Structure formats: structure tokens, C-alpha cells
Amino acid sequence: MSKRIALLLVSLCIASTPLLIAAQGKSAEIEVIAVVQQLADAQRTFDQAALDRLLAPDYIEVSPVGDVDSRDKVIGFYGPDAKAKAPPVESIKLDETTVRIYGDNATVIARQTMNMNVGGTSRSVVMRVTAHLRKIGGAWRISSMQYTGVRPSKPAAD
């Protein structure tokens, strides 16, 4: 191989490295957001097996009412008895996401909108969620969550 071709190949590799790193970063962002959405879906459907798979062994949560709950307590909350008593949640959507990846650790901050039917009336509950994830055995797992209520918007003055 001539020196010119070798230099061209090296130059292409160097020039494409930032693009590859950026693509890998976007891929990781998509992965961690998907895991947080999977958690929301598991909560919506009271899927304890999915919760067990998604939550890290040392998971801890600050609930919407400010309680600090262990992994076992959170998974236990989503048992069959609770499902029978809970109002049906139609959807849980994440948007306004901000993601930070630090190697095998990630933080996701998002707005979570939960739509449910309470006594025949549609209702939306909006919270900010902060999730900390880390890679365990090659898969992203949620280590902690914090839920903070968002005040409804005030009506515009006339």
C-alpha cells in the first residue's frame, strides 16, 4: 500500500471518530430513555416481573409524596391487590427529556404525563422524573428515581 493511501485511510479514521462517538452517545441516550419508559409502562400495567428486571438491586425511590422507598417496597406496591384498586391508567408519556451519560452511569430528567380515568373523568397528572441508571451486566438498570409534581398552569388573565 502506498504512503498516500495509508495517509488517506488514517485521515478518514481520524475524521470519522467524532461522528462515531456522537452516534454511540445518541444510541445510549435512546437506550436509557427507553428503559425509563419501560419502567413507566411496567408501573402502568402492574408488571412486577418487568419491575424486577428493570430495577437495580440497590434501587431506591423518592415517591411523588416524598417517601423514600426501597426496591422491595416499590415492587410490592404493584401487586395484584393494588392493581384491582387503582384507577386505570391509559398512558404514561415521557417528553422534554435531558440525558447525561457518564460511562456506565446515566441521568435522565423528563416530564412524565400520566393519563387516567377516575370515575369516568379523564385526568392528567404531570411530574418531573429524575432517573439514575447504571450498566449492570451490560444492561441499563435504574438505580434511583425521584418524582416531583408539576403545578398545573394558571389560566391566562383576561
Summarize, please:
The protein contains 4 helices and 6 strands, in the order ααββααββββ.
Structure description:
- A hairpin with a 2-residue loop joins strand 5 (121-136) and strand 6 (139-149).
- Helix content is 40%, strand content 42%.
- It has a six-stranded mixed sheet with strand order 2-1-6-5-4-3.
- It contains four helices and six strands, in the order H-H-E-E-H-H-E-E-E-E.
- 13% of the residues are buried.
- The protein has one domain: Nuclear Transport Factor 2, Chain: A (Roll).
- It has helices spanning 3-45, 48-54, 71-77, 80-85; strands at residues 55-62, 68-70, 89-102, 105-118, 121-136, 139-149.
- By secondary structure, the chain is an alpha+beta fold.
- It starts with a helix and ends in a 9-residue tail after the last strand.
Can you tag this structure with a few keywords?
alpha+beta, Nuclear Transport Factor 2, Chain: A, six-stranded mixed β-sheet
Overall residue-averaged pLDDT value: 85
Number of helices: 4
Q: What portion of residues is helical?
A: 25-40%
Task: Provide the CATH topology.
Answer: Nuclear Transport Factor 2, Chain: A
Write the layout of secondary structure elements.
Elements: H1 3-45, H2 48-54, E1 55-62, E2 68-70, H3 71-77, H4 80-85, E3 89-102, E4 105-118, E5 121-136, E6 139-149
Parallel strand pairs: 1-6
Antiparallel strand pairs: 1-2, 3-4, 4-5, 5-6
Helix pairs in contact: 1-2
